[in-house]
What does this fold into?
Amino acid sequence: MKLLVTGGAGFIGSNYIRYVLSAHPDYHVLNLDKLTYAGNLENLSDMEGRSQYTFIKGDICDRTVLDGLDFDAIVHFAAESHVDRSILDAAPFLETNIAGTYNLLETARKRKCTFVHVSTDEVYGSTEDGFFTEQSPLQPNSPYAASKASSDMFVRAYVETYGLRAMITRCSNNYGQYQFPEKLIPLAIINALNNRPVPVYGDGMNVRDWIYVEDHCRAVDTVLHKGEAGAVYNIGSRNERPNIEVVRSLLRKVALHLGRNENDLMHLISYVRDRAGHDRRYAIDPSGIEQRLGWKPQMSFEEGILKTVDWYISNKQWWQRIISGEYIKYYDAQYGERLRK
It folds into this structure.
């Protein structure tokens, strides 16, 4: 199979490419990435030179780039994905997440190829109790979530209108190796290592279901091969945690690695003004994909967090180059500088 992976230089995309080439050594992967601020080719430095892997620098909003590529299936990760950035400026989210997805759907329609659209549980909005199922209504609360919900509806429309073999995955919060340092888990680890304040929004009691990135990658690959056209698959690990509990767990792991008393790091926790429209709780019911496709998560939260902390401690050069800006090929200073502070 010739597989086009969009956004393959990002966090989840790069982990997916690494997984696919390990699980399917006879596949050829085309990695199409615009290399915006979160796209980092160093995420796949170990893939360079492999005959089964090709990188193409390009924008999914540019149809001419897509027309020049040869592939049998699309796995679509490319997206503007940081909620804070969408609050500051929603325009890039409309362009990439909606118009870019439309371009890919048109390409898939013309070629009659399989399309896997990687979405998010944030399209369901917030819930105080119970769990989101694939039948839950879409109630996005941030510009980012709204852009993803919109693209989900386009995928559905192309299945119903054109008979495209397309599936949607909606996953809970990912964590693991190569995650961009603006996200909660790597930010907490890196700041703790540098003895800097670890910011926590509001009262820290916003709840998320956390999944290790390699479990997510296996799920997406399972959907690619076994998924039913038009189906939605919720992907989660049943690992609900309040943000403050996640941060405290990270600080305990970092203290253990540094040989320090964990109380020495707990004082780094800094409660900050809550994010606008901050959803209180996400909770995914993954029983659909478990029962219909036979996928189940393999990594426990405690084991995954320990493995993640190990990776960030062992790969300081990777995140130091990001923080310094040395790796950047593109950066929008208008809002990037504000968030980087």
Q: What stands out?
A: Confidence is low (pLDDT under 50) at residues 327-341. The chain has 13 helices and twelve strands. The first helix runs from residue 11 to 23.
